[in-house]
Amino acid sequence: MFEGHDTTAVALDFALMLIACHKQVQDQIYEEIKSVLGDARAKPTYSDLQEMKYLERALKEVLRLYPSVHFISRKLGDDVVTASGYELPKNTLVHLHIYDLHHNPDIYPDPERFDPDRFLPENCQNRHPFAYLPFSAGSRNSIGQRFAMLELKAAICGILAHFVLEPVDTPSTIVLVVDLILRTKDPIRVNILQQFDNIFNEETDRHVDIFKEIDDQSCVPINPHITQFKLKTIAESAMGTKLQFNTEKEVSYKRAVFTIGDVLLYRLIHTWLIYKLVNFFSQKFFEEKKALKTSQRRIAVKNEKGIIDDEGTHEEVDTYMFEGHDTTVTAVNFAYMLIACNKHVEEQIVEEIGIVLGDARQKPTYKDFQEMKYLERAVKEVLRLYPTVHFISRKLGDDLITGSGYKLPKGTITHLHIPTIFTTILTFIQILNGPGNCIGQKFAMLELCAILGSFVLEPIDTPVVVVNIVSRTKEGIKIKFVPRE
């Protein structure tokens, strides 16, 4: 039980990290799964797993770089003379460092590189049989190593059938520690993006139908429609909850999500509501103030058992819904306006959608969006001109000296004005970078692809931008949606 679970679990951790860090490998594994099973979400049989040769090579390369059993010990049955001439008498206890063996550049050129093709038959034929020992070797070889490989294959098949992996921790950021098996100092993290194709496409169809019902000669204030669409999509794909906004409870929640941005902005510009030094209200006010800080992430706040408490969970969900809908809705609004005003861009996006999908009205998958490079560039340019989060604030973790020589002490609250950054340094901050990254920004491309496949956009106005928690317009953006022939 110990050897059977611990070694395989650690191997799976490292496998997910490396697959997340190498998109080409991930894509090739996924294509192999589809090729063998027909449907990537079908349940594989023993013979199916045996056919997945590329996945097996990838897992072997994982175990070369990070062998779960990184050393083995043996008592010599006879006297042994080493290659350097050193004599080891019978019954000497010797340690074999498998990790060092697997990273020997004489055996594995460029040993730190992740390359599943090292285990192609033609690349293995001249390699010593004991040059690769992920499960030990000889008469005391690891029990059930074939079972372990099948278990790893089945786990990767199940995960990649439903999720796209994106890296958080990488080989350069993890710290390995010595234990009976190879471990990391901190747990390995990856971003798992659910394959929410079906959910998104269902909501998109409803969204498109709404615009089809509108007279094509009418201009449409797009914000209310996009906002409701985003809330429904995020709620179902991320929270597993369908929102129809046909009950008072759901409508009330939607209203609260809209209102929280105004509440935060109001408190930010009314200093006496923030700092106790200039506040003359009762202690009850500060209790209410603390309760309203739903925008502060509490994912790191845990109780004594290491589990997020109920209040933290509620706040995390509210943050997800607020940040995930508001920033993306604003980005899509500006994208519609700019694409409508630049017909050559609109035509090139539609052409690319047709090339990738075959039919511009075909239902796209997540992997289809990965191929739409021009659309991605267009969205990035929208976010350069109109960054949805136009400023961010951070507390300095260390003293900082600015380019002009001014010293900012540790603990200072600093504000970064993103539109200004674009004119002063060669940096592109789309919605937000770093660990405080905005939730839900990946939905923007999905929305644009669906709408442009069904409509030609015609511009009505270019409204004035105003300051808020996110970039907004003084009046709602209006677009004319003309059904595409």
Automatic annotation (TrEMBL):
<keyword id="KW-0560">Oxidoreductase</keyword>
<dbReference type="GO" id="GO:0020037">
    <property type="term" value="F:heme binding"/>
</dbReference>
<keyword id="KW-0492">Microsome</keyword>
<dbReference type="GO" id="GO:0016705">
    <property type="term" value="F:oxidoreductase activity, acting on paired donors, with incorporation or reduction of molecular oxygen"/>
</dbReference>
<comment type="function">
    <text>May be involved in the metabolism of insect hormones and in the breakdown of synthetic insecticides.</text>
</comment>
<keyword id="KW-0349">Heme</keyword>
<keyword id="KW-0479">Metal-binding</keyword>
<dbReference type="GO" id="GO:0005506">
    <property type="term" value="F:iron ion binding"/>
</dbReference>
<protein>
    <recommendedName>
        <fullName>Cytochrome P450 monooxygenase</fullName>
    </recommendedName>
</protein>
<dbReference type="GO" id="GO:0005789">
    <property type="term" value="C:endoplasmic reticulum membrane"/>
</dbReference>
<keyword id="KW-0503">Monooxygenase</keyword>
<keyword id="KW-0408">Iron</keyword>
<dbReference type="InterPro" id="IPR050196">
    <property type="entry name" value="Cytochrome_P450_Monoox"/>
</dbReference>
<keyword id="KW-0472">Membrane</keyword>
<dbReference type="GO" id="GO:0004497">
    <property type="term" value="F:monooxygenase activity"/>
</dbReference>
<dbReference type="InterPro" id="IPR036396">
    <property type="entry name" value="Cyt_P450_sf"/>
</dbReference>
<dbReference type="InterPro" id="IPR001128">
    <property type="entry name" value="Cyt_P450"/>
</dbReference>
<comment type="similarity">
    <text>Belongs to the cytochrome P450 family.</text>
</comment>
<dbReference type="Pfam" id="PF00067">
    <property type="entry name" value="p450"/>
</dbReference>
<keyword id="KW-0256">Endoplasmic reticulum</keyword>
<dbReference type="InterPro" id="IPR002401">
    <property type="entry name" value="Cyt_P450_E_grp-I"/>
</dbReference>
